[in-house]
Structure of Transmembrane protein 135 N-terminal domain-containing protein:
Amino acid sequence: MVAFSKHYLPFSCYEVGHTWTPFCPSASSGVGLSCFEEGLKIYSSVYLLSALLSGKLPNIAQCKRIFSSIVQSSFFLACNGFCFIGAFCICRQIFGRFGVLSSGFFPSFIANLIAILVERPTRRPALAIYVTNVASETIYNQLVARRFLTPIPHGDIIIFSLTLAGLFRWFQATQDRNNFLFKLLRALVGEGEIRSPSNLPTVKTPPGKGIWNKSHPLCPHTQGCLQNSFQVLFKRFLCGWGLHASVSAILSFPLIMRKPSNLLLLLKGMKHVRFGAFIASLATIYQAVCCALRWLQDSNRKSHSILAGLLAGISVGFYRNSTLILYLAWKTLEVLYYEGIEAGYLMKVPGFASFLYSLSTSILFHAAVMEPHNLKPSYWKFLMKITGSRISQLNRTSLDCLGLQSSKMLPNFNPEYESNHISDQFKLWLQGHKDEY
Ligand SMILES: [Zn+2]
Ligand SMILES: [Zn+2]
């Protein structure tokens, strides 16, 4: 058996990377074309769905804009795939070998930077947040796998609570009322909770005698605090349950059409109840804590929202979804960053979204090449789809000597090489590893 250094691998890009073809240009253009084809399918659905959701029939100019957006975004995806394989081969030529970082991270960073400049500038921040979210999950998996980190019990709930504390504080202070997050929070806790005391409704139902009808004079709701809390709990549960069940029904539409009895089965699903309970408890805890603080301090401070958000975070215990939690955490950091720039506390870094996209996607590509078992399964599926399964056709057994158990997820992959395109050194290595296939 041929043994190599733990830090580098002397094989060619064909032997390690594009095992399906010995020709570098053919490999990169094949992956680029596959990405473009899949990109057209993905972005056609995305842009057409958002046009449909806007509720307006697009005119000719808008149709042209949608079409050019679909082509531009697909070209961005194609460019990312094409440049990644190209940079992978060029890096091998320059370094003369493969190392832990030159197999995935470096070539990917170059490719990502070129590709993101092709994408529309308005889409770059959203893309950066999306990949940073997936990359943070991947880094967490990598740290746990290396035993640098032990999972903290209820760590997701702690992250969500801190996120809500920051998010609700931003909600009370921001002027950016067209922001999607602002509209979402307003729908959740109601218009009243963002009004300043001077704007409070003056007309209230006469206070009753019982605790049920009692409300603090500074409370924005017209009913008693307890009555309002129960109303919020009931209404938000119905909304949350209905929304989750409707989305599930739309996604399972072909299945329901084939067998209508599936609809009843779908509506009985516990995940809808859990989502309803999550939304209901979040809104109710937030409002109840705000009411309690008004009673305790006899004032209506914006800082109350921090404690209310922190406690409302417990609600995620009903619906523990790490993607949702991390996405909201990164979105919160994004809005706080922009508020910080607006207030003059933070500096605006030009091209920050493009850099963040490139860095986060490099982390994901490094994992996809070197340790796919630590990658989020849905992202691996996405890579398989856009590359026409080429991402699974790397010779990861040869990368195992770099110490990251690269072939752990696909131990039985056995590439068919063209013998006139492989080196004697690699032939010797193949001989030594015959039994492993
Ligand atoms: Zn090559
Ligand atoms: Zn109240």
